[in-house]
Design goal:
The protein has one domain. Helix content is 29%, strand content 27%. The longest helix has 12 residues. The radius of gyration is 16 Å and the shape is elongated. The two termini are 29 Å apart. The protein binds zinc ion. The site of zinc ion has 7 residues, from loops.
Length: 113
């Protein structure tokens, strides 16, 4: 409980704290399933990297790509998502961990590396 309070108070003080919106699109049979931030999805749709037949599967609000991917796997009925590399404590001492070999995003502070 103590660590939970610390994280919550850190979040209140972080001006850049904002969840991002991710979308999962089904572009089978050729394009597979894509999970990305909405702006990337929109670019892919505009550039034809997602076909006109692609359909939205679900939308996820998350702090990091790892969090979005974990929820995505649950919604897809897939095995639990395993983040890339080992978690490390956020260098800004907010109390959270991040994945330097993955997204490099702290759930509280945003992009670290
Ligand atoms: Zn942090």
């Amino acid at each position: 409980m103590k660590s939970r309070r610390r994280v919550n108070s850190a979040v209140r003080w972080l001006p850049n704290y904002m969840k991002k919106v991710y979308e999962a699109w089904d572009d089978e049979p050729d394009g597979g399933i894509t999970l990305a931030e909405v702006n990337i999805i929109q670019t892919n749709l505009a550039n034809g990297l997602l076909s006109k037949d692609a359909r939205l599967l679900h939308r996820i609000e998350a702090d990091t790509f790892e969090e979005a991917q974990a929820v995505h796997n649950i919604k897809m009925g897939w095995s639990p998502f395993v983040p890339e590399g080992k978690p490390k404590a956020c260098p800004q001492n907010c109390g959270a961990v991040f994945y330097p070999e993955g997204s490099g995003e702290c759930p509280n502070c945003g992009r670290i590396c």
